[in-house]
Write a structure and sequence with these properties.
Order of helices and strands: EHEEHEHHEHHEEHEHEEEHHEEHHHHH
Structural class: alpha+beta
Number of strands: 13
Strand content: 5-15%
Oligomer: single chain
Helix content: 40-55%
Length: about 400
């Protein structure tokens, strides 16, 4: 029998991790900059190394709402950008780098070197970037219950976040090629279903004994419990080019999870989407990664399907009251407006169609984040100037 303690956290608290690309400021190619960056700022625990050296991860503090989360991420990214500029680097983010055509340099930490040995050649190609959202859970049983209820919505989140149409300089025809690549790795992808926390703990103990995992962080499923943090971690999403898009998705996840929890407490089995057989789940994943918001989602075992865009609108309507209570409504309104324009994979293709250059696509990704941070910095300066005026 497994015995793993789930350290509950403030109910429905929020955390976020964003994996960003480190770029040479001139060439816009990925550059192995994490080691000098950490050497420059060893005291900043919010700026962390990840699997490859051309990536930096920023992690938020534990937040109680989306505006607090947004402020924390903006502050961290402004600090990161300034530090990168001192080293001749810039930053951007999306699920993949559009024209990277080299192998990854693995960050020389024991855990990552062990993963490289286990993954073989696949590790050399693992240049992908994700957005991860944590939501606080009152108990391990609650985390596993919501995990099962949330699984049918993961293809929806994948389609909404898709930002990786290019790979090694080519348009892959996928909205999220990152998801396709990661599905080839043994610890990634769709999570199993568990009855309760003890069932998960028993599974992990067996898997650990078999040498599949050493620690829970070695599980890279698109949805996993994090007992040390007391959270359920949603990992299916591509990294987003802008902070605002990350916050829209966080508000969507937050509102959806709280609504699912309410249905669980009221012993209601269904909420728009229900769990499906594994092969249908897998097909929905493929469709979302291939066609993004233009995909048709299979809703039942009879094979009936509907456009993902329509399902997103239904979800937004269903969680509207909960979102209002949580203070998430303005973010979901922005998300609804964004449906008409489409996620980053559409914008990236539009830039390529206009210019014919994948480097121009990367330049557009850099500009999107730079412009957003510049606006925030300017607003803060104006606010500080106004606050310094005495009457």
């Amino acid at each position: 029998m497994g015995d793993i303690e789930f350290k509950s956290s403030p109910e429905f608290s929020l955390g976020m991790e964003i994996e960003l690309q480190l770029l040479n400021s001139d060439t816009l190619q990925l550059v192995d900059g994490i080691l000098p960056l950490l050497e420059q700022a060893p005291e900043n625990s919010l700026i962390q190394a990840e699997f490859n050296q051309a990536m930096v991860e920023v992690a938020s503090k534990v937040c109680s709402n989306i505006p607090e989360l947004e402020a924390n991420i903006v502050s961290t990214l402004c600090n990161l950008k300034a530090r990168c500029q001192e080293l001749g680097m810039t930053i951007c983010t999306a699920g993949t780098h559009p024209f990277c055509d080299r192998f990854a340099s693995i960050t020389p930490l024991p855990r990552y070197l062990s993963q490289q040995t286990a993954s073989g050649y696949l590790a050399d190609l693992m240049m992908t970037f994700a957005l991860q959202i944590h939501v606080g859970m009152p108990s391990g049983d609650a985390a596993i219950d919501i995990m099962g209820r949330l699984k049918p919505y993961l293809p929806i989140l994948l389609a909404l976040s898709a930002s990786s149409p290019f790979w090694w300089g080519h348009d892959t025809s996928f909205a999220s090629y990152r998801q396709r690549f990661l599905s080839s790795l043994r610890t990634y992808g769709i999570s199993p279903s568990f009855k309760n926390w003890q069932d998960f703990a028993n599974f992990f103990t067996t898997a650990q004994h078999a040498g599949m995992f050493e620690i829970i962080r070695d599980i890279h499923w698109d949805l996993r419990p994090q007992p040390d943090f007391g959270t359920l971690e949603v990992r299916v999403m591509d990294a987003q080019p802008t902070i605002k898009e990350s916050m829209m998705l966080a508000a969507f996840v937050h509102s959806l999870i709280v609504d699912l929890h309410h249905h669980s407490q009221e012993k209601q089995a269904g909420f728009l989407l229900t769990p499906l057989p594994w092969l249908i789940e897998k097909e929905n994943y493929f469709r979302a990664s291939r066609w993004g918001l233009d995909a048709n989602y299979i809703e039942d075992e009879q094979g009936n399907s509907r456009p993902i865009k329509n399902i997103v609108k239904d979800i937004l309507n269903a969680v509207a009251e909960t979102a209002d209570t949580l203070g998430n409504s303005s973010y979901l309104l922005q998300l609804e407006k964004r449906l008409a324009e489409g996620p980053s994979y559409i914008r990236q293709r539009q830039v390529f169609a206009k210019t014919g250059y994948v480097k121009a696509v990367v330049a557009s990704l850099v500009s999107e984040l730079e412009d957003e941070l510049a606006i925030t910095t300017r607003q803060e300066a104006e606010n500080n100037q106004l606050s310094s005026i005495t009457f």
